[in-house]
Amino acid sequence: MTTGYRVTANASLRERTTFGVPARAPWLVEVDDAAALEEVLALLPQVADGDTLVIGGGSNLLFAGDAPGAVIAMATQALRVLSDDGGHALVRADAGVAWHPLVMWTLEQGLCGLENLALIPGTAGASPIQNIGAYGTEVGEFIHVVEAFDRHAGTRLRLDRDACAFAYRDSVFKRDADRYLVTAVEFLLPRTPTLRLDYAGIRDELGAMGIAAPTARDVAEAVIRIRQRKLPDPAVVGNAGSFFKNPIVSQAQADALLVDYPTLPVFRGDAVHNRKLSAAWMIEACGWKGHRDGDAGVSAAHALVLVNHGLATGAQLLELARKIAASVQARFGVAIEPEPKLIGATW
């Protein structure tokens, strides 16, 4: 009898991704105890060919076909404060802990930093892989250590923030996805807030809430309200949140675009001479907002969000995404790329 994990053959993955598209895995292994990973990884080559895929909440995946090999789902759930010096606390979350409840739990403990990341779907273990970000904050800023299993060496590792090599929607875990399996994340969170209010209507939302001196919890509530208006609930309409990354271009290219499109939103990029453009603005300018091809569509509330109106396949959603990207390239000369990991297809 196995302990620490459960195995299902020929498993449906439709309910394990927020897009809700049909897909299957030859084997699904749900891991309840990270200590069982050695046994799980030794077992998989005996039962399944193809690359092993690790999933969390499935909020950053698009299956354009079935999984090529076994799928591991981290279901570990421990969440606790490791240390607290009164100014900062070190919080440890197992990979399977749901992200939004984690954010709200830290706020309940009087800890700050993650409030702008409220209501993002997914799990703690997935957060460093994509270096999730929203409303002027990236999770990598608050990550102290990521615990991972190195599948190449067969050993457990603790990678500090520098070793994680965080960048915009990127990390060492994303760049070397077949090597690292995230098992837990430690966050170093302050008790004194440094609130970030100057992004995407947060101040206006706080004003509408009648709050002049906001707390971190108030900022989280403002973010939740904005996201609920702009982004469809995956439980109602299948989606993976923002489908496209905001492109990074040179300052010269941004300046040239502003001559022809003076209302194009432009933000500071990841380097002094880089600029980040609003993919949503360009997609909407190309007429895609609210567009629908069968059950594959673009949200009428937010042009960055691709939606499954019910029976769309991953391949149909990917086809639509490629059309959108081609039109943005043709009009603006800017390449946009998907945020979700594509399974069964390449971009």
**What is the mean predicted local confidence, pLDDT?**
94
The percentage helix is 25-40%
Proportion of residues in extended strands: 25-35%
Q: Indicate the low-confidence ranges by residue numbers.
A: none
The biggest beta sheet is recorded as: 5 strands, antiparallel
Radius of gyration: 20 Å
Compute the separation of the termini in Å.
42 Å
Q: Which secondary-structure class do the elements indicate? A: alpha+beta
- Widest β-sheet, arrangement of strands: 6-7-12-10-11
Number of helices: 10
Characterize the structure shown.
The chain has 347 residues and is an alpha+beta fold. It is built from 10 helices and 20 strands. The strands form 6 sheets. It has a 5-stranded antiparallel sheet. Strands 1-2-5-3 form a 4-stranded mixed sheet, covered by helices on one side. A 4-stranded antiparallel sheet has the order 13-19-18-17, covered by helices on one side. The longest helix has 19 residues, at 314-332. The chain is globular, with a radius of gyration of 20 Å. The N and C termini lie far apart (42 Å).
